[in-house]
Design a protein that fits this description.
single chain; mainly alpha; Peroxidase, domain 1; CRISPR-assoc_prot_Cse2; Cse2_sf
């Protein structure tokens, strides 16, 4: 039986298995103004999930994530991606199902939250921050990113992604990033708050801060 995956995972799989080198170039170029240049590999997926009521923000975010993903991928990797069968792990998968920790006394919900934080871009940026010996400039860029509106977000994310890809060993969970960006404009800014908690929690725990 085929394993059910989320829409966000399906999009990442679609990019990995359907993109051609020319698509990568288009996606990177379109980052300057996501959604303005038609990219067939993205449009084919959107045609499957959008009805006649087109969501402008949803379309922009799918294009934005596709472009960011393309900046981290080389043409030579595409064939390797097509041969892979595994998906990005999701926090809700069985192997990530939280259990109570009898040693810490913490309930299962705490461990589930921890697993979720480690998939956010906030956690990835914290890893970059720690790897670079905690420069103030990266923290400032992160805070500026959290404050970005719709127009500022593509540029600030592109800047941050350039920094992240320059540091080896930092994983980006693309399906989680897509899910978060779709909720970027929610009242109360829950995504921005989640990223901030992930960043400072990681810095505190892994950077030795008290």
């Amino acid at each position: 039986m085929q394993k059910e995956i989320s829409r966000e995972q399906a999009f990442v799989r679609h990019l990995r298995r359907r993109s051609e080198p020319a698509d990568l170039a288009r996606m990177r170029r379109a980052l300057g103004d996501p959604g303005q240049e038609v990219i067939p590999v993205v449009e084919r997926f959107l045609a499957r999930i959008q009805d006649e009521r087109e969501d402008r923000w949803e379309r922009l975010v799918y294009y934005l994530v596709a472009g960011l993903w393309a900046t981290t991928v080389s043409s030579s990797e595409l064939e390797h991606f097509r041969q892979q069968t595994e998906e990005e792990p999701e926090p809700t998968q069985a192997e990530e199902k939280p259990v109570d920790n009898p040693l810490s006394g913490q309930p299962a919900a705490v461990h589930q939250v921890e697993a979720g934080y480690r998939r956010t871009l906030g956690h990835a940026i914290a890893q970059l921050y720690l790897a670079r010996d905690q420069p103030k400039s990266i923290e400032q860029r992160f805070v500026t990113l959290l404050d970005a509106d719709e127009e500022q977000l593509p540029y600030r994310l592109r800047q941050m992604m350039q920094l992240l890809k320059s540091e080896d060993g930092i994983q980006i969970y693309w399906s989680e990033l897509l899910r978060d960006l779709l909720a970027w404009n929610y009242e109360g800014k829950p995504v921005q708050q989640k990223w901030a908690r992930a960043f400072y929690r990681t810095v505190s725990k892994e950077g030795g801060e008290e």
